[in-house]
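G.,

No rush on this.
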Amino acid sequence: LRDTNSYLEKVFKDESIRTHSFRCAFIKELLDDNVNVKLIQELTGHKSASSIYRYIQNRNIDLSSILNSIR
């Protein structure tokens, strides 16, 4: 991952862009599209659906629709 992160830094000329940035963007896109949190958990390999909630912070997302998708 270090090599990949170094490459990303050179291409984007931004030290804050890392491989994890793409994972975050993917999860945020899925949340924006109201994809079921359990499915996001499976797709991203998180052990718990609760770990997805950190991606919801500071976002303008209808939390009730996300919570309904878990049920």
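When you get to it, here's the other one too:
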Amino acid sequence: DCDQAIIGYEDSTYQTTHYLLSLGHKRIGLLGSHLRGDIRPDPRLQGYERALNQARVPVVSELLFDGPAFE
């Protein structure tokens, strides 16, 4: 029995971005909500930036799309 599922947002976003980079993609966008949080950085953004930084691909602010939160 399992009553909850926990998703590692940072790691899953890192792995996804890393995979796209391994295919040769360089302009990878990120769609999220509250990416630049006031209290702490969004873990999805941290994983995305970590993968790009490791690949020496610049983070382009125009590829970050910050939309409303979904509940």
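The mean pLDDT is 84. Helices lie at 9-22, 43-54.

Enjoy the weekend,
O.
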